[in-house]
């Protein structure tokens, strides 16, 4: 204390703090929590630290209760530095999101519904269920038409679909999907047209010399329906392969399970819609297909989320998360209703069928939106790359050949130092790489 200074001056000197000095340099309240799993890129940490400190201290001071200077009980400890956020240079995305709009998820749903209905119609035809056969065939044609319209609308010009038929490329999911639809459509349309002609009794409106056309349609209906049923699994699953063949993180990381999820969803939707449109006495195969499809979808979807690792977060947050949760609830309720109550009363069958159809719609839109969100958020690109890079370096240090992927990390594209988009990565060559 200097001569002439007061007690208040001493208190002020003790309470003063240099600019930039940590508020708790000795960690009196314990070590500062850190998120060891995610590292931010430059320019993302340390922002709003004063605000975070104020929140931590309850407005800048310690609460005093009956215990004198003690901290109030029950107060939650908060981080002094806010959570890291991911940004990129100039605010540009690491992976560009697809320009697709709502036409594409509807196209995914309608295509699956068409394939599942064709398969169900073939079974009804062979087992002698005329109402179920008719309704399933007509559903397949309508769903195929809606799917084609959505695809052409997204393409912008109808001739673009025709131009894709000029190439046959087995390594391209888009090329193979185009040819699958082209091969599937004639049989499905013929079978559906025969049912519509019988339903409307078109023969009596035709001139006598053209009435043979209805007989020709009746003769071709079964072969056409069986041909469509053979291609139905490919129609229901190729759209999943089309999505997973992109660089969109949430779609690419689901490349093993997503086709099975789409097939199960298609089976549940087609079985559910047949339960709505057909008499109760003939809906046995539809209920069976719906229950099997719902079970496959829920089980494989759970496995898919586990195998996706960090990228599965895109399926749990925001709009995709709400859609996927609704899908699981609707599919589970619809499947249970079809199994337990679907045969007792038509009202139960209709309610269960509608729930299954709605669940399938939510699945397609949820997966689509999750992919778009994972492309917009750079963390879904950076973190998996860092994990693969760290795993490769650990394998090299352990003497494991770099071509063998560790069992704890999902196989994926190699993430070399030059391919890493995170600028915080140390690009110094590893000692074992020299």
TrEMBL record:
Compositional bias segments (type: Polar residues): 13-24
Subcellular location(s): the record lists: Cell membrane
What ranges does the record list as Low complexity composition bias? 396-407
- An example of a Pfam family matching this protein is NrfD
Keyword Membrane on this protein?
Answer: yes
Q: Which UniProt keywords apply?
A: Cell membrane, Membrane, Transmembrane, Transmembrane helix
Q: Where is the composition biased (Basic residues)?
A: 63-74
Q: Where is this region: Disordered?
A: 1-78, 387-434
Specify residue ranges for compositional bias: Basic and acidic residues.
1-11, 26-38, 424-434
Q: How does it sit in the membrane?
A: Multi-pass membrane protein
> Which InterPro entries does this chain map to?
Electron_transfer_protein, NrfD-like
This one is known as: Polysulphide reductase, NrfD
The protein's organism comes out as Microlunatus spumicola
Organism lineage string: Bacteria, Bacillati, Actinomycetota, Actinomycetes, Propionibacteriales
